[in-house]
Amino acid sequence: MIALTTLAAEGRWLDNPIIQQAVPTAIWETLAMTVVAGLLTALLGIPLGVLLFTTSPGGTAPSTFLNRVVGAVVNIGRSLPFLILMISIIPFTRLVVGTSIGWQAAVVPLTVGAIPFYARLVETSLREVSAGKVEAVTMMGASRGELTRKVLLPEARSGLVAGLTTTVIALIGYTAMAGAVGGGGLGAVAMSYGYNRFESDVMIVCVVLLVVIVTIVQVVGDIVARRLDRR
């Protein structure tokens, strides 16, 4: 606190070369990790969420055995702390991207950790679709695929966006943890300089930037979700 007060009194805020040189690169790495992992999570999490919903009791294609198996896998994925997950799948990460260091490598555990989380949010959103609409379209002779594509997903799109917003914000938090084990980004800069070298101004700048990024994601997600809401 004394060091921060001194910096402020001397007007040397943001003059730290780490802030000027390392933070811009860290911002780009954090955004890259979040965007790539978010897109992959949406691409893989939506089908998994649809499978959870359709095979559940009362779903459009109920299957107790398949639902329990998929549900168990999803629950295991959600229960693992991200740091442990990231370390435990290092061999798989190397197999996929050829390295376990850097933001590209961090995308793998970020995606693996976020998919089960988002799949459950997708399942919840699909359960909120009016049963009357589903029944009406089914009576008109729609196939299960048509029912999913033309009714369930369009009707649940506001919830899907809201769920994806929550997932992306969770991913931003995960990127900070990934930085602690070589993933790069703002988390790595905060740990390397703010924590290990006691450069408090670097730590504060990294925290403020993470808060700004999370706020922007939340505001944009809320706007899109409201515009898609048909209720």
UniProtKB/TrEMBL annotation:
Alphabetized PROSITE patterns for the sequence: ABC_TM1
Name of the molecule in the record: ABC transporter permease
Family label: Belongs to the binding-protein-dependent transport system permease family. CysTW subfamily.
PANTHER family on file: ABC TRANSPORTER PERMEASE, D-METHIONINE TRANSPORT SYSTEM PERMEASE PROTEIN METI-RELATED
Subcellular localization, as worded in the UniProt entry: Cell membrane
Assigned GO CC terms: plasma membrane
Topology class, membrane: Multi-pass membrane protein
Single GO BP term: D-methionine transmembrane transport
Pfam families: BPD_transp_1
Signal peptide (UniProt feature, chain positions): none
Keyword terms: Cell membrane, Membrane, Transmembrane, Transmembrane helix, Transport
Organism superkingdom: Bacteria
CDD domains per record: TM_PBP2
Stretches assigned to the ABC transmembrane type-1 domain: 27-221
TM helices/strands, residue ranges: 31-53, 65-89, 101-119, 159-182, 202-225
Organism for this UniProt entry: Janibacter limosus
